[in-house]
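[SOLVED] Need 3D model of a two-part complex

Original post:
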Amino acid sequence: MAFIGFFVARWQTILQLTIEHLVIVLVAMVISIVLGVSVGILICRSRTLARIVLNLTNIMMTIPSLALFSLLIPVLGIGKAPAIVGLVAYTQLPLVRNVYTGITGINPAIIEAAQGMGLTERKILFKIKLPLAFPAVMAGIRTATVMGIGIGAIAAYIGAGGLGVFIFQGISRTNDKMVLIGAVLISLISILTDRVLARVQRKFNR
Amino acid sequence: MIKFECVSKRYPNEPVDAVDRLSLHIRAGEICMLVGPSGCGKTTTMKMVNKLIEPTSGTIHIDGRDSRAIDTIELRLNIGYIIQEIGLFPHMTVAENIATVPVELGWTKARISARIDELLELVDLDPRIYRQKKPRELSGGQKQRVGVARALAADPRIMLMDEPFGALDPITRAKMQDEFLKIQEKIRKTIVFVTHDIEEAMKMGDRIAVLKAGRMVQLGTPMEILAHPADPFVSELIGGRQALKMMNLIFCDRLMHEVVAVDRGQSVEGARRLIAESGAGRLVLSSGGVHERFYVDAQTLAQTHDFNAAIRPIARALRLRASAQDALSEMLRTGERFLFVEDDSHEVKGVVDLEDLFRQVSEHEHADQA
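Solution:
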């Protein structure tokens, strides 16, 4: 009951932080998807390049997110900018990897037929490769976005705002209601986003 | 139409040429088969036509133009391409697949739509049923039909076919081969057809180029290759029983001689005279200029005075497109030394004698040897 009371009393702050959180993640994801898909397409040209890039993104993910954000402070200072950069770096792996496996997993006969019929490389990419890799790409986008929403909480540590603020404040003030509110809302947003993206994915698969 | 001049191809890090100084002129409207074991360079040769593979040396002229001077995309859009795996685009419908090249060429929607229907009918698929189907809903044979339709979409003058029927079961394959030959009779494309199956090469080819380790060891019609294999490799490829195989290449329309008709009202004497004059072994009854499915046998007629008693029904006749082998098989089965030949509307057109079979096959065996 105290929990609901807390929620009602602070609803304006909660709303503001939620919107902040969503904006950070949204901006980061737009950049991340554009970058990740482009890199994923690019590395299909060379196996060596693919190995290097995939390893790099892999390493990026093994850096603890808290450390990654802290490392960005000397370069970008504090606030939303380093938070977005950190999120973009962090969510590259599922995107790049899924685009890459999605495209390289296409039956080579299909690509050969397209080439032999006289489609340009550009047309093959947009009319054949990307549509066929779409389910894999979309799965990558889902994973990356859900990850981004979760890790976005940690961005509060470097002053980016968002629902992480509640969690960090709650911890320092030993106010478990605040921690709970932050955590529950982040989980809810993650689940909802995943559901929506899954629906989008299914709609296009048909 | 397609002219290879001293064309060689060596792949990087390979000690020998995949294709070695190949000179070959593929004529307009013919099916030229490239046949040989795997690694003989047949697919490489074919892919050099549409520049999927660039030759290391030599030139290829297409329609009199050096292929290097032709824009690659333009060249490919004007050459139909069919591969064994078919490579239909799984996310597109049958209609969209067929429309690929016409869309690239900027045809109008109405023209493309009409062309899709026309092509589906050509490959014997009902447009109303198949236009909107996805490739995964089709059987292997149907997929390859769509593959053929897609390759023909923009009415290219040249078609490249890389083992197009190789992945089909034997019955479907034979059916597709027959149907494709029928289509080719109408469309008269210049076709480069790659296969490792010499039987298929014999059946489909106007001419066959036999390749071995990048070299062309023989070029000729199926009949020439069967009659005079250039070397032991070609003989081995053919695999013996040449004369029997030749019988697959001779058809009843060429084998038969015309029937002599006799009117139903004819007298025994008149019929006998007709037999004596024509030298025919039997007469087909006719009424009002139309052949009936009855005949009178010369031997029977010689022993009777009753014309009607000599009349026999024609129970079974071969089609014009039946091969000499079909004819021989039928003779062995029925014990008759002759067979009637009918056209598609079941009208009796001619008759094949056992002697005709012998004469024709051995003629080919000894032809142009002199």
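Edit: Chain B has two domains: 2-246, 252-363.
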